[in-house]
């Protein structure tokens, strides 16, 4: 349903150069930003929407608005794309750290950096590395993935599979307390446990409909639910909640956990025997560049090195640091990091995400599935020396991802623990990884062979590798060479599992009532900082909510229909639509395909 | 039918308003070779050219205007196999910028990128416009840096096709097989995932070798 306030679409607002719907025959040359009409050499005097900050949410929003037909001016105070989602070189990180510590980058604190002399003046150059400020993985069945396909932004990018999700347990990288109970992957798993697991998996794929099963536990923890209702034991419970669900602690509520476990399972085998993907050359930094390019093609104007100084909600004029001005007819959208001086409406960013990013001189290929260069390692609560209460997640990327040179690897550690404990937990996790890696590289340990085939085509669901088992007592002789260590605390308004809700963006929307005299940001809307979430799940939700605020409805959010005669792309689009249908219901994933997949898991 | 198709990512660089987009428009909308209409993808314009029985598929990345306020992204140059660095023969400033872009490409892009330096808008010289960048200056820069060199008019179409043919010819014929085997290797090593090839039975195009 189109709401009455809905702004006209691109087709309605702009004389059509070529109508796709009327005539799907060969295109000649499309109406393109800068191809049909030369672009003006100055920034526009008047735009529909001004967006400050080129992070993921802002970039997806810019592309959505540009293709919808809005006139967008998209700026960033930095000289690079990405803002809170940037992928940076080592030199850029050095500058960023200085800015954080000078207090000129809001929402980040306590940045500590070590860079080996081997980078810059030695073996490696700053540009050999691409470090993400908030690394993410892309689930194979997710909103963002379908938008990447629809918008064709995926054509600017390369994706690689991520199949290894390790769990660290028992003060060692022994896979689990008792390897005999390794979830799914062990033939010695008691029949009863396997049955219970399968029962749970069948349930979780269609959990919402089965309220009678989970409702009674809706306010209780997921571990209670798994133990009481499905008679699962600790190793399975941990693997389900932390490795598969990627949850942050044991208090996770049942619906959230179910949704996250299902995310993994329905993503599995969409493109192959793995649930997630990583983009090459960098994560969200790379994706935001792709969406910005798409927005530019759709007509948005880009200007880096441009800082908003103030917005006047009465005259609707935004003023920039270089003295230029623009009249904004609809909305001004700003990332909290780009807030002008004297801003008074920046939402409180009360949740901390602690991050440690290391570059290690060691290929660490033992941790990757064959041919891959990415892995997740999860440290569940209580698994570390520090007695961690929250999970520490370590996302590992190798040279194959082109974010670091051959022979090196990047570890992205993060935790949702708050306060000084967080750093202790992260340090403990780092030490555990370091020890495990040294044992690994010295022993040449083979991956475990015991794997139960679960799907019809011989793929396993969980391909967890036992790291360094039985080398618990081994004391390594060598030390690991760290090329780079970056510690920082990031602040966000989105709690772990927090769903971005529309009312958040209403902070400034009660018009004049909330204007503060002297504030430079009256009448602007702030976006959210990235949360601790390791997947891109929050991005589309946030962009969509903002889109609706601006356009009046989200009906035509990325309602693109690129038709062309390139056979390959045409079939790609058909496929994208299919795919879209499958996940259209958002939380209510179509179970047809997945049902089959469960059916084949004969025990 | 010729089965060996080499795909080339080609990027355009140069000061705003030198005619980059016009050159592309001229190239893709001309009756060129025995070719069909250009195909339009959301990501880039594509145009196939057949040179000596060998088909070169240009994936042309225009700047989409992002160069106007110095906002090109690193993603833009990445893995480009060819680049047109364009200047306006009537604007000396644009030639200075061209030098800058050549330098930038040598730093940022792949080592063996083929670069064509293109002095555009030569039609203006016939119409009383004054030449501000001598042909020799362009030739000299091209020679120094190992670039192809052309002077073109996107308006009349003069020399535009030659730019792309020239680049196509510099891609050695054997590159096709090399590229195929190289990219196959890359796929098996790096597990590149094609997002259009989901396993839900809808993608019958897994055999495509574009
Ligand atoms: N006379 C003449 N004008 C040209 C030529 N090429 C482009 N133009 C004009 O120069 C302006 C800028 O061209 P455009 O292709 O948008 O430049 P871009 O910013 O580099 O993409 C437009 O007004 C074009 O019509 C040419 O060869 N001769
Ligand atoms: Mg242009």
Automatic annotation (TrEMBL), chain A:
<dbReference type="GO" id="GO:0016740">
    <property type="term" value="F:transferase activity"/>
</dbReference>
<protein>
    <recommendedName>
        <fullName>Rab proteins geranylgeranyltransferase component A</fullName>
    </recommendedName>
</protein>
<dbReference type="GO" id="GO:0007264">
    <property type="term" value="P:small GTPase-mediated signal transduction"/>
</dbReference>
<dbReference type="InterPro" id="IPR018203">
    <property type="entry name" value="GDP_dissociation_inhibitor"/>
</dbReference>
<dbReference type="GO" id="GO:0005829">
    <property type="term" value="C:cytosol"/>
</dbReference>
<dbReference type="InterPro" id="IPR036188">
    <property type="entry name" value="FAD/NAD-bd_sf"/>
</dbReference>
<dbReference type="GO" id="GO:0005968">
    <property type="term" value="C:Rab-protein geranylgeranyltransferase complex"/>
</dbReference>
<comment type="function">
    <text>Substrate-binding subunit (component A) of the Rab geranylgeranyltransferase (GGTase) complex. Binds unprenylated Rab proteins and presents the substrate peptide to the catalytic component B. The component A is thought to be regenerated by transferring its prenylated Rab back to the donor membrane.</text>
</comment>
<dbReference type="GO" id="GO:0005092">
    <property type="term" value="F:GDP-dissociation inhibitor activity"/>
</dbReference>
<dbReference type="GO" id="GO:0016192">
    <property type="term" value="P:vesicle-mediated transport"/>
</dbReference>
<dbReference type="InterPro" id="IPR017230">
    <property type="entry name" value="Mrs6"/>
</dbReference>
<dbReference type="GO" id="GO:0005634">
    <property type="term" value="C:nucleus"/>
</dbReference>
<keyword id="KW-0808">Transferase</keyword>
<dbReference type="Pfam" id="PF00996">
    <property type="entry name" value="GDI"/>
</dbReference>
<comment type="similarity">
    <text>Belongs to the Rab GDI family.</text>
</comment>
């Amino acid at each position: 349903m189109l709401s009455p306030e809905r702004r006209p679409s691109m087709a309605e607002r702009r004389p059509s150069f070529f109508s796709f719907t009327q005539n799907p025959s060969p295109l000649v040359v499309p109406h393109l930003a800068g191809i049909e009409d030369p672009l003006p050499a100055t920034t526009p005097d008047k735009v529909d929407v001004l967006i400050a900050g080129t992070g993921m949410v802002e970039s997806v929003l810019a592309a959505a608005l540009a293709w919808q037909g809005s006139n967008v001016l998209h700026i960033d105070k930095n000289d690079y794309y990405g803002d809170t989602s940037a992928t940076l070189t080592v030199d850029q990180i050095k500058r960023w750290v200085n800015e954080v510590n000078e207090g000129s980058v809001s929402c980040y604190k306590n940045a500590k950096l070590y860079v080996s002399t081997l980078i810059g003046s030695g073996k490696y150059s700053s540009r050999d590395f691409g470090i993400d400020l908030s690394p993410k993985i892309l689930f194979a069945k997710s909103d963002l993935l379908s938008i990447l396909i629809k918008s064709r932004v995926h054509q600017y990018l390369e994706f690689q599979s991520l199949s290894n999700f390790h769990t660290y347990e028992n003060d060692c990288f022994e896979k689990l307390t008792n390897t005999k109970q390794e979830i799914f992957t062990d033939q010695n798993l008691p029949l009863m446990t396997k049955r219970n697991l399968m029962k749970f998996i069948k349930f979780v794929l269609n959990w919402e409909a089965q309220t009678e099963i989970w409702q009674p536990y809706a306010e209780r923890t997921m571990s209670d639910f798994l133990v009481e209702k499905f008679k699962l034991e600790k190793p399975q419970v941990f693997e389900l909640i932390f490795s598969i669900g990627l949850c942050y602690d044991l208090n996770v509520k049942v619906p959230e956990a179910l949704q996250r476990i299902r995310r993994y399972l329905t993503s599995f085998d969409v493109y192959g025997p793995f649930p997630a993907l990583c983009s090459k050359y960098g994560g969200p930094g790379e994706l935001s560049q792709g969406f910005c390019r798409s927005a530019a093609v759709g007509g948005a104007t880009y200007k880096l090195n441009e800082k908003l100084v103030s917005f006047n909600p009465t005259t609707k004029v935004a003023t920039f640091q270089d003295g230029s001005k623009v009249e904004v007819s609809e909305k001004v959208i700003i990332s909290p990091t780009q807030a002008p001086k004297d801003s008074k409406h920046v939402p409180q960013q009360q949740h901390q995400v602690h991050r440690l990013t290391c570059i290690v001189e060691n290929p660490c290929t033992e941790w990757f599935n064959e041919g891959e260069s990415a892995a997740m390692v999860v440290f569940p609560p209580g698994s570390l020396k520090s007695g961690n209460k929250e999970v520490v997640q370590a996302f590992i990327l190798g040279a194959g991802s082109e974010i670091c040179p051959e022979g090196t690897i990047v570890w992205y550690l993060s935790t949702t623990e708050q306060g000084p404990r967080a750093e202790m937990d992260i340090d403990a996790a780092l030490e555990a990884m370091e020890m495990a890696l040294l044992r690994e590289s010295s022993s040449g340990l083979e991956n475990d062979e015991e794997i139960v085939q679960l799907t019809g085509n011989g793929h396993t669901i969980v391909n967890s590798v036992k790291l360094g088992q039985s080398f618990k007592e081994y004391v390594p002789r060598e030390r690991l060479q760290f090329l780079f260590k970056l510690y920082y605390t990031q602040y966000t308004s989105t709690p772990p599992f927090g769903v971005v809700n529309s009312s958040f963006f209403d902070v400034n929307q009660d018009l004049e009532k909330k204007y503060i005299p002297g504030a430079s940001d009256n009448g602007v809307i702030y976006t959210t900082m990235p949360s601790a979430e390791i997947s891109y799940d929050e991005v589309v939700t946030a962009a969509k909510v903002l889109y609706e605020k601006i356009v009046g409805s989200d009906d035509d959010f990325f309602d693109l229909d690129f038709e062309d005669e390139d056979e390959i792309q045409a079939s790609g689009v058909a496929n994208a639509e299919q795919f879209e249908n499958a996940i259209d219901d958002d939380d209510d994933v179509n179970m047809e395909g997945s049902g089959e997949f469960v059916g084949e898991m004969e025990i | 039918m010729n089965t060996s198709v080499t795909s080339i990512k080609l990027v355009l660089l140069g000061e705003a308003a030198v005619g980059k987009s016009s050159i592309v428009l001229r190239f893709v909308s001309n009756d060129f070779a025995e070719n069909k209409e250009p195909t339009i993808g959301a990501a880039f314009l594509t145009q196939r050219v057949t040179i000596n029985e060998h088909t070169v598929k240009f994936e042309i990345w225009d700047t989409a205007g992002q160069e106007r306020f110095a906002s090109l992204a690193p993603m833009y140059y990445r893995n480009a196999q060819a680049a047109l660095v364009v200047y306006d023969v009537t604007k000396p400033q644009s030639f200075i910028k061209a030098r800058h872009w050549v330098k930038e490409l040598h730093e940022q892009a792949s080592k063996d990128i083929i670069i064509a330096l293109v002095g555009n808008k030569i039609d203006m010289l016939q119409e009383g416009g004054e030449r501000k960048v001598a042909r020799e200056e362009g030739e000299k820069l091209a020679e120094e840096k190992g670039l192809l060199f052309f002077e073109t008019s996107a308006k009349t179409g003069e020399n535009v096709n030659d730019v792309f043919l020239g680049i196509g010819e510099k891609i050695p014929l054997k590159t096709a097989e090399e590229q195929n085997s190289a990219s196959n290797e890359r796929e098996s090593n790096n597990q590149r995932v094609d997002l259009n090839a989901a396993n839900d039975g809808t993608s019958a195009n897994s055999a495509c070798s574009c």
